[in-house]
Design goal:
38 strands, 32% helix, flat
Amino acid sequence: MLPDEYRTLDFFAEEALPAPRVTPAEAEDIAAGHLHVAARAQSLGSQQDANFLLTADDGTPTAILKVANPAFGTVEVEAQDAAADLIASARPDLRVATVLRRPDGSPRRAVVDIGNGPAVARLLRHLPGGTLSGPRHLSPGTVAAMGTLVGDVSIALRDFRHPGLDRVLQWDPRHADRVVAKLAEHVAEPDRRSTVQAATDEAWRRVQQVAAALPLQAVHLDLTDDNMICRPGTRPPLPDGVIDFGDVTTSWAVAELAVSLSSMLHHDGVEPHHVLPAVRAFHAIRPLSPEEVEALWPLVVLRAAVLVVSGRQQAAVDEDNAYATAALDREWRIFEQATSLPLPVMTHLLRDATGLADAPAATEAPVRPLVRDLAAGAIALLDLSADDDAMDGGAWLEAGVEDRLAASALADGAAVVATRYAHARLSRTPALSAVSPATVPTGIDLWLGRDAVVQAPAAGRMLAAEPGRVELTYGARTLTLSFPLSVKPVVGTGASVRAGEDLVHLGSGTSVHVALRAADGPAAPRLVRPEYAAGWLPLTADPAPLLGLPAGSGRTRANDLLERRAAAFATVQGHYYADPPRIERGWRHHLVSTDGRSYLDIVNNVTPLGHAHPRVEQAVSRQLRRLNTNSRFHYASVVEFTERLAGLLPDPLDTVFLVNSGSEAVDLGLRLAIGASGQHDVVALREAYHGWTYASDAVSTSLQDNPNALATRPSWVHTVDSPNSYRGRHRGADAVRYGPEAAALIDELAASGRPAGAFIGETYYGNAGGVALPDGYLAEVYAAVRRHGGLAVADEVQVGYGRLGNWFWGFEQQRVVPDIVCVAKAMGNGHPLGAVITSKAVAERYRDQGYFFSSTGGSPVSSVVGLTVLDTLRDEDLQGNAVRVGGHLKRRLETLAGRHGIVGAVHGSGLYLGLELVRDRATLEPATEETAELCDRMLDLGVIVQPTGDHLNILKIKPPLCIDTEAADFFADMLDVALTQLGHGGVRRDLGAA
């Protein structure tokens, strides 16, 4: 051992810590001559050590050679290896880069001379799988897994003791203030240097306020994206391995989490709120104390500041260290994100995430009302949320909608109009946005309908009094009033005011913003983004009581409604997304959450006209005011609707049954076919979904809707190959073989004495992602079933009603006429409506089974809705829009295929498209997990899109038919961004902003 074997590092006693200069050839000599391993060495990056991947001649990794910085004593290296062994023993589910050992159990470790002094070299276990390094966006599942891993390591090291932990490291946040002070001079830009110093000072002050209560323990202190190894084959990447114990020391336990959080902040699209899943995951297994929560984000800022100054210093003293130089931009981005919000805001956000938030403090009742001689009953409350009727008809998108609504309320006699505190304003929401807009108000706005005197609500001191603004103390809070710059207050800055003393005189028509905030807190923006509302709102208070109004109820917990849903609503009726937005409004091709976020709707073929279409709403309201009953009564609308519907189909399809859903339509269609043919066997396509009733489920073979679909079909259902020309058994030009093979199976059934009474299939393969059937396929199959007395049943539930653009019905693309057509979804624009259309001869055969009746199928309201949808499809040329916008969108998607290798194919026609994602364009291995991750990222970017297909690797693109080119371009742009951020190629684009 070295003579100074018990020496440990004191960073402040060192001038610099350049990484050892060891070439790959020298590394190979060290491995062979000192550690008795013959291998090839490949240099790996490191800030202060020298690391090499050792491989056998065939390229197989054998070990990691780590040459420690000469400044590190042997006892420190021994502590690192002991900590790794401890974690490996305590957590066998984790992979740990432990030191390799000789047959006698001694570590493969040696002291070597590297030119600038002796250093400890050793062999460490190589962990396959790769790190989380690089710019790739970190999905919530990955972030949570990082938090879990950090928690596991923290628990494992809690009782670890070793003399080698007694070190003074620049990375130990207990010394962050000194490190920044020592190294700040290496930040050449004065503005950046002063920013780093100021942030360090504030963060250090806040940590010191709770430092005495922060537990100390052994910490890895470098559990970053660079030092977490992903489990091989996991998608998205999930870490289960730990490397690089070079910074092991004793420090504040919560620093372990702070270090990890900081490393997330440079990834594409990641901003502070994205790290919360890691905090929750850590807290779930290693609970944070209130003091640790107080210290956590200041420690993140200190870590970021130390990274910046240390990186600049390392690059200066170690110019050949490409690893250190390449990290400079990344480290500055971490600092920018860490300081993008005031520390109190992030601390309250963390309190909320860990369940340690305090109950909101009530606003003190005023001694005098803020506005003199104003009765609470004379104030009209202006609700600008997604729930308010005033937002109907897309009014939320109108410029000046708030002023218009306020003026209307004043005209109706209100003395003052006031908005609501903390309730998200839909009026501040753009239709398309890749980043959530600031919608949550931290104060209230007033519009005055008469001249008014604003007075001091209690005794206080004027902190500011200037044109357009006054600020005064109000108990432990600060009250701020903002009004037009043309208005001057009647008191001056610094004056003491009594309760009821005049502050400012305002004329009728003036608008005023009123805000209350903690006296020692930061000034809050008037509106904040929903993700950060839980951080900002505790620093503010509802000003409504100053006007004599009750304080609002505030924001509810996001999970409350989900928990109630799970308790009362059968969970087999799933919901999109693990953490779904609460959608309470739609308009055209947009869905709107209660947080005031507008999402582009790419999945809703249920509403072809668009959400909340006024013609449908008016028609339904008018009919409900008059009559809604069952179709046994005699009224005009059911006749007019069925005539119109039958008129859209070729002869001999002239007779209509009306039901409530696609499942019912398919069920009835099968009953009609079996009844008319007298033959009970049915042939169906694989990879298809037709419904949930007994008969429609029996012919559904989608493995995603029922993983046991093929094995559990009743004996009367017979399936044929999915005629998928992209990934099916016959591909490309060979897809013409599907038709003859299906016909042959139908012939074989007949020969066996079980002729099929029906063949059912989607006329354009919707459930498989919008794949067109091979030319002539339906003609061949229809002919085969008919020659044995069976009928052809067309499922048009998803693709019918003009969605394909060039064809109103999918069967038109195949140049065939079915015997029975089943349709639903688009018929009612969200109203439950379905239909079966067939010939009169087939319809009459139903009488052999009894009579048919549907209580609400064909009701007056349903019939009026159906007529209105058809009228609007025609009048707004929505089928033509499917041709134009759908064609444009498909071209944009095909361009993406040239930029991102994961895009295997673009299927579909019109506005029924499918983007199929594959891991390999040759093998077509489906990118199932990548597709799910992409859908989650697209939600964050403002787009609702979901997967389909048996492998759930196809984006189903079936928006309302009213979608315009701007929205289609936004969708394609966000796909490009998301695919790039998730590491699938393309030019990096970063939209994140706190």
